[in-house]
Amino acid sequence: MVDFRYHLVSIIAVFLALAVGIVLGTTALNGPVLDDLRGNIDRLTADKRGLEADVGGLRNQVEAADDFATTVGPGLVRGVLADQTVLLVTLPETPSELVDRTTQQLELSGAQVTGRLRLLPALSDPRQSSLVDDVVAGVIPAGIDLPAEGPVERATAELAAALARPSRGPAVEGAQAQAVVSAFEEADLVQYESNGDALRQASLLVVLSGPARTNDVDGAQVKAEQAGQDAVLSLASAFDRRARGALVAGPETSADDNGLIRRLRAASSVASEVSSVDNADRGVGLVAVALALGEQLRGEVGQYGAGDRAEAPLPGATGP
User: Fold this and answer.
1) Environment class of residue 8 by beta-carbon count within 10 Å: exposed (0-12), middle (13-18) or buried (19+)?
2) Bridge partners of 304?
3) Domain ranges, ordered by start, for the chain
4) 159: β partners
5) In what order do the strands lie in the sheet with 112-119?
6) 30-to-25, 38, 39, 154 alpha-carbon distances in Å
7) pLDDT, tens digit, for every residue of 97-117?
8) CA 314 → CA 56, 109, 167, 272, 306, distances in Å?
9) Against a cut of 0.70, is the pTM above it?
10) 37-68 in b/e burial notation, b at 16+ Cβ within 10 A?
11) Residue 47 and residue 22: Cα distance in Å, rounded?
12) Residues 160, 254: Cα–Cα separation, whole Å
């Protein structure tokens, strides 16, 4: 019978053999493995530094392009929008800096901003359709024919009639126009801020979008977001048909998935009427805003910037 000491010695011998094997294997492989790892680390470090240099170079190019646009932009846009009035439409996510810089560019181009309008979520909420219908029906201006589509389309057409200085068709008188906007405000469907003591109608409309949403949301939120975007685009189309033109501008990513400009360019009926600029947070984009509005005054339409489905960086420039 094998005693306990034999078992103990056998177990110790096994573990000793394993230890010796590990030491010998590590010694044999240590050099090649470490050399390979060091080589990979050196290559990754070099790649990282190369990418950092590329990013730095691209940033410098973008800054140089912005500086160039800021320098030559005033000469390019001065007088392009002389004697024109512009209504700004903003969204909750619209950066305040974009509003300020766009306003300055419009004024430099010779235009005057009459005010700011924001469409509130209730306007495009299907659960509020009866309220929207009631507000629309209660303040239809004399001589204005509204479309037969849904409540949002009728509402945006009525707002456009009140806020646009028409290039065709009868004008809505000041008191009636104010009554329309006031009714929509009282129902919490819009917010309106005039740049003067009284409402002034505009010949052009500029929608200032925010960046595209990047986080995941549930299906109900997606539908609500898309409904709100469609309401804004419906207003832009209605305004364009009544006045001299309309344009949607936004920062980088506004032409990405979930962005307002992406939705505009995917809707052929809107893209054939309303222009867009997807990099209005850049100097070259601000120049494009003014020049694209000048095109709208001539009855022309274009999609500009660096994002998906942009035709060229600037009106009159050749795309890639």
Assistant:
1) exposed
2) 277, 312
3) 1-77, 81-304
4) none
5) 190-194, 112-119, 85-90, 204-208, 245-249, 275-277, 303-304
6) 8, 12, 14, 77
7) 999 999 999 999 999 999 999
8) 25, 16, 26, 17, 10
9) yes
10) eeeeeeeeeeeeeeeeeeeeeeeeeeeeebee
11) 35
12) 24
**DSSP secondary structure letter of residue 144:** -
Q: Which two tokens stand for residue 222?
A: 């997606």
Q: Give 314's DSSP letter.
A: S
| 3-state SS class at 63 | helix
What letter represents residue 272's amino acid? S
Torsional class of 111: left (φ above 0), alpha (ψ -120 to 50), beta (otherwise): beta
* Separation CA 240–CA 250 (nearest Å): 18
Q: Running DSSP on this structure, what letter comes out for residue 156?
A: H
When pLDDT is averaged across residues 136-144 and rounded to a whole number, the result is 92
- Considering only CA atoms, which of 249, 223, 216 is closest in space to residue 95? 249
Residues 6+ positions from 193 with CB-CB distance below 8 Å: 115, 116, 117
- In the block, residue with structure tokens 């409402």: 199
DSSP-based three-state secondary structure for 41:
helix
pLDDT tens-place string over residues 116-130 = 999 999 999 999 999
- What phi-psi label fits residue 40: left (phi over 0), alpha (psi between -120 and 50 degrees) or beta? alpha
Residue 58 — pLDDT band, cuts 50, 70, 90? very low
Identify the bridge partners of residue 89 per DSSP, sorted by sequence position. 117, 207
Gap between the Cα atoms of 9 and 12, Å rounded: 5
